[in-house]
Amino acid sequence: MFLTIEADRYHAYQHLLFHMHKTRKVVFHDRLQWDVPVTGDVEIDKYDRLGPVYLIWCDASAKQFIGSMRLLPTTGPTLLDEVFRATYPSNVSLSAPSIWEVTRTCVDDAALALHHPEKTPAMAFGMIMLAVCEWCLLHGVETIVTNYEPYLARIYRRAGVEVVEIGRAEGYGRYPVCCGMVEISCKLLARMRRALDVTAPLLTGSVAGIEGYAA
Amino acid sequence: MGAARRFGLGQSGYSIPIVDKRHRRALLSLNSHRATEAWQEHLANYKVDWHDLAHLVHRKALFEAFGEHDPLPQLGPREIECLTWTARGKEAKEIAGILRISEHTVRTYLKSARHKLGGGTLSHAVSQAQRYHLIAP
């Protein structure tokens, strides 16, 4: 199932969040070799301490973590603004209540293979992004900004997402890092559901109030 | 709920958390006597505007508390371009054609410019930008 965990409920999902930080360490530190803050088994940065919303994909019992994305409002301090500012055109970031940033996307490959062997890591990325899209529609978030390496644009597209590149910069690692914008709309929701073969809402309680939601 | 009702509060509401670049936090809460379904519909129509309003109130509250505004955050080149064309009377769709970017991208740059220039309307953002010489008069 897909869960959105906000700061007031972190305490209820400590085990899932811990597993998320462990997976982030494996993905961002061990595999991608990014310069991220690691303590022991986990990767936690200062933005985790700002009370972000975590979009978590887990098993039905909410005990096994599969994947996640992290959401922060661009009205406050963000990773893109402070660390990846060079990927914005002329180093100036975007800021508005309806623009949120998505960062630290990760998938636990072993958990995915165990619970959803029919889904590739690319599809898993799409599923979590689809849940993010639902959350955005519920909360009046109209634009997502995110950083990604160029090859990820293909994975976005396969999930039905048009990510518009607005800037890029070198010097963060092997590949350039792009800054992209995603328009959140009911059209996007429909496109993603077609691309990912999803016919029902991923977030429970998210059906009401979304225009054009017909299954 | 009983206590809330005695104070004149309605059964429906919506709370908007605010966080700004200097880590300050606030909460704007709205309350209504509308029934749930009517409220949900009302909310869906106005939510995005209320989020903007919440940040505007936050900014006013900061001014009341500290007597001065935060320094104006920087506008990016695309925000300036989009504001400049807006000042010349162009709408988002036309600006998109001129700059060869999508309409949504234009709207996003304008949203960001509005927020950075005080959170008011687009007209207000244009006049602020002109006042502070961020765009040509």
Written overview of the protein:
The complex is a heterodimer of chains A (215) and B (137). Chain A contains six helices and nine strands. Chain A is an alpha+beta fold and 215 residues long. Chain A has one domain (2-196): Aminopeptidase (3-Layer(aba) Sandwich). Residues 206-215 of chain A have low confidence and may be disordered. With 137 residues, chain B is mainly alpha-helical. Chain B has two domains: 2-66, no CATH class; 77-131, Winged helix-like DNA-binding domain superfamily/Winged helix DNA-binding domain (Arc Repressor Mutant, subunit A, Orthogonal Bundle). Chain B contains six helices and two strands. Chain B has helices spanning 2-6, 36-66, 77-87, 92-99, 103-116, 122-131, and strands spanning 12-19, 25-32. Chain B has a two-stranded antiparallel sheet with strand order 1-2. In chain B, strand 1 and strand 2 (25-32) form a beta hairpin. The model of chain B has no long low-confidence stretch (mean pLDDT 92). Chains A and B meet through loops of A and helix 2, helix 3 and helix 5 of B.
